[in-house]
């Protein structure tokens, strides 16, 4: 499978939603997609309500732990 890279500027343009839809689609096709958030800003912790990886994976997998999410975020910054 080819890699898909979702990018965009500004907050609230739909990058996370598009990523979630793509992840959902490929999981339904019995693929093993990976959502990786290189830079996450505006969060203190991976379980913050504004953490994109938490949103994507809790809506797909339901059961996740801190280490699982920490593996999907390379850099986490409090300030956006």
Please outline what is shown here:
The chain is α+β, with helices and mostly antiparallel strands. Helix content is 35%, strand content 12%. The protein has three helices and two strands.
Q: Classify the secondary structure makeup into a structural class.
A: alpha+beta
The biggest sheet amounts to: 2 strands, parallel
General form = globular
Total number of helical segments? 3
Number of distinct beta strands: 2
Low-confidence stretches: none
Helix content: 25-40%
Query: What is the mean pLDDT?
Result: 90
Radius of gyration: 12 Å
N-to-C terminal Cα separation, in Å?
A: 33 Å
Order of helices and strands: HEHHE
- Portion in strands: 5-15%
* Arrangement of strands in the largest sheet: 1-2
Model description:
This protein is an alpha+beta fold and 80 residues long. 35% of the residues lie in helices and 12% in strands. It contains 3 helices and 2 strands, in the order αβααβ. It has helices at 15-28, 52-60, 66-70, and strands at 37-41, 73-77. It has a two-stranded parallel sheet. Helix 1 packs parallel to helix 2 (52-60). The relative contact order is 0.20. The mean pLDDT is 90.
